[in-house]
Amino acid sequence: MAIKRGALVGCGFFSRNHLQAWRDLGDRCAIVAVCDLDPAKAEGAALEFGIPAHYASVEEMLDREALDFVDIATTAPSHRAIVEACARHGVGAIVQKPMAPTWKDATALVVAMEQAGRPLMVHENFRFQAPLLRAAECLASGMIGEPTWGRFSFRTGYDIYAGQPYLAEVERFVLLDLGIHVLDVARVLMGEADSVVCRSQSIRDGIRGEDMATVMLGHRGGATSIVDVSYASPQSPDPFPQTLLHVDGRKGSIQLERDFHLIVTTPAGTTSESVAPRASHWMSQQWCLIQDSVVTTQRHWLDCLDRGTEPATSGRDNLKTFALVEASYLAAASGRRESPATV
Ligand code: NAD
């Protein structure tokens, strides 16, 4: 397969993980340009990662470079315009979550790429985390039978504002920033949901949006699940950035506990295994769960480009997760059970 030529847009906090991961995948792709509205950031990333070109304008980069894909690691308000520019230039794109700040923009950017006939994947990396891939594999094997109930939980007091200060300013906060990841995991393990109940809370002083949310999903097969997310849960030791889960099935259960202990109970007995992520030289101990999943996510994108197949987290697929976020906000405001939009 020919080496794919990519360009990265948005050289901020999280983009380092993308660039390191693309470097790990260097036998299959080359990042040939980077772009940031702040020229110093673009130049700094180009210098550090040995990337030949840097730009301050996406349009100029798309005009000048011959690309197989663009990797969009900017914050959500810019995603629609950048994806639409990629569509106009006939270039595929992988875009960070959340796809957009609103449902209108999210659907518009998916439609733009579909009309251009180019692939679009959302960088939804939680379902690609090593422990969650293993939990999904156990569930899919049928060893605990049909799932009947699930709990997917991410609660932390970690200072996320230090690396991402913009999070204190967003009106729709924890559900759109973090809930979107955990709702996606609930979809993958329990199947599609057709009803949503939600309560949200704003706990920390000085933030604009909600930093705690509890969602109850009714799944099409009859199962129930709880997705609870919090950035306002001081604790020690803090499991950040781990998602913990418990799924009951008709024949057993799966529990993912702190520090990557997976406990599976089946009619044959209970087993426990360590499902720790792979650590590589550029990863930190605390972040390697996320960093390893970035490599797996980006590898999946390259696999799909090579094979011409639709990514598991395509724009269209991610709209289903986005619809759960929207229904959660609606349910939190109305106090009633809401139905997600049909995608
Ligand atoms: P950031 O603000 O640190 O970096 C964003 C960069 O994009 C900035 O340097 C900004 O100048 C640049 N930018 C903005 N608009 C642009 C445009 N139109 N053209 C070129 N450059 C532009 O943000 P961040 O914390 O790195 O977050 C980026 C994205 O990554 C967000 O969508 C966030 O939700 C996501 N994120 C994902 C994970 C994950 O685990 N998947 C973790 C953290 C952040």
UniProtKB/TrEMBL annotation:
Pfam family, one: GFO_IDH_MocA
InterPro entries the record matches: Gfo/Idh/MocA-like_OxRdtase_N, Gfo/Idh/MocA_oxidoreduct, GFO_IDH_MocA-like_dom, NAD(P)-bd_dom_sf
Domain Gfo/Idh/MocA-like oxidoreductase N-terminal: 6-122
Single GO molecular function: nucleotide binding
Source taxon at top rank: Bacteria
Domain (GFO/IDH/MocA-like oxidoreductase) ranges: 133-254
Protein's name in the database: Gfo/Idh/MocA family oxidoreductase
Species annotation: Lichenibacterium ramalinae
Top-level taxonomy: Bacteria, Pseudomonadati, Pseudomonadota, Alphaproteobacteria, Hyphomicrobiales
